[in-house]
Amino acid sequence: MSSPTADVSVRIAWADDAAAIAALQLRTWRTTYADLLPPEALPDDVDAAAAAWAASLRKPQDARNRVLVALERNRVVGFAMTGPGADPDCDPVADAEVQELTIDPTERGKGHGSRLLQAAIDTMVADKFTRAVLWTIASDDATRVFLSEAGWAPDGAHRGLDLDGTGATVVKQVRLHTAFS
Q1: Contact at 8 Å (CB) between 108 and 114?
Q2: Which one in 25, 29, 39, 60 has a CA-CA gap of 20 to 30 Å to 52?
Q3: Nearest to 68 by CA among 2, 35, 117
Q4: What residues does 72 pair with on adjacent strands?
């Protein structure tokens, strides 16, 4: 007798997903940036974030901008945002960027991240990209290990991300990349 399997999937995000994506993003930032910023420095207006997400989902700036959601049943547990590479050393025709890869902290380790990353790669390949880049916090060992096990590697690029807009809180990021064959 087989055991029941989880009802999980990944699909293109709809404008109706905006509130769930916004709530997940803001909730996850509280975990991701907990050691870097005080809680009051993080945005908490889910309605404003949902409105911004809805607008971008309805009318993306580029036809190759995609947002994918990982679902458990009908609940959004993660999302990925991809599009043309924006860095000056990237070719926006050949190079894609995973601009965000977010999994609900309480849902990690259940395969959602792997499914979401693979769906993002499949989408970027379908859009004729041949390589992808992704920026991550240099001290986020768990994300770097996850990505390296999926075939991503540092490409030598690094930057400081100004989290509060004043220069007082700058986080070191490293860029990872992978080629599609």
Answers
A1: no
A2: 39
A3: 117
A4: 8, 75
Contact 102, 92 (CB under 8 A): no
pTM of the model: 0.90
- The DSSP code for 41 is G
pLDDT of residue 168: 82
Contacts of 134 (CB under 8 A, 6+ apart): 97, 98, 101, 147, 152, 175, 176, 177
Structure token pair of residue 106: 């309480």
Mean pLDDT of 114-118: 96
For residue 160, give both structure tokens: 């400081």
Please state the φ and ψ torsions of residue 22, each to the nearest 5 degrees.
-60, -45
Query: Sign of torsion, CA 137 82 49 10?
Result: negative
Distance, in Å, from the CA atom of 78 to the CA atom of 98, rounded to the nearest integer, reads: 14
DSSP state of 131: E
Q: b vs e for 34-48, b when ≥16 Cβ sit within 10 Å of the residue's Cβ?
A: eebbeeeebeeebee
Contact (Cβ atoms closer than 8 angstroms) between residue 127 and residue 174: no
Nearest to 14 by CA among 46, 54, 48: 54
